[in-house]
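Re: weekly structure request thread

Next one in the queue (158 aa):
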Amino acid sequence: MDYIFSPWRYQYIATANREKGCIFCKVVADNTNEQDYIVFRASLNFIILNLFPYSSGHLMIVPYKHERSLALLDQPTTTEMIELSKKAQTALESEYHPDGFNIGINLGHAAGAGVAEHVHMHVVPRWTGDANFMSVIGETRVLPEELKTTYRRLSVYF
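Done, posted below.
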């Protein structure tokens, strides 16, 4: 039997569904951008690295307003979310040169939202062939870059 070690996943496994309160509201209040991987703060939303990314460069646009549904956000907030996702896409294209993107919102746990109580938009760079057996069969993702490096590479664009 082969073993593939991914020790960075332990933090997620150990804390999943155990943390009290909203992680997005917590990191905004912390006001420690680099430590919390917030790459940009706009007036109504912020851009943060996903702590458990699908691929290197996986960003999220998160409103400051804590709402569980896109429909509950006002028009200026959703407009800024889209504008920031465009900015994120441009930054990722410049720095990582992906072959494509997944950009979207998962609403509710059944739809795949890891933080269902606070709506957020994902901007995920994708490369041809990046959905290999590791993710599909092994339920493991292999990321070639640490979050600290991703933060340094992307924060210069915002």
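The first helix runs from residue 9 to 15. The helical segments are 9-15, 23-30, 33-36, 75-96, 133-136, 147-155.
Next request, please.
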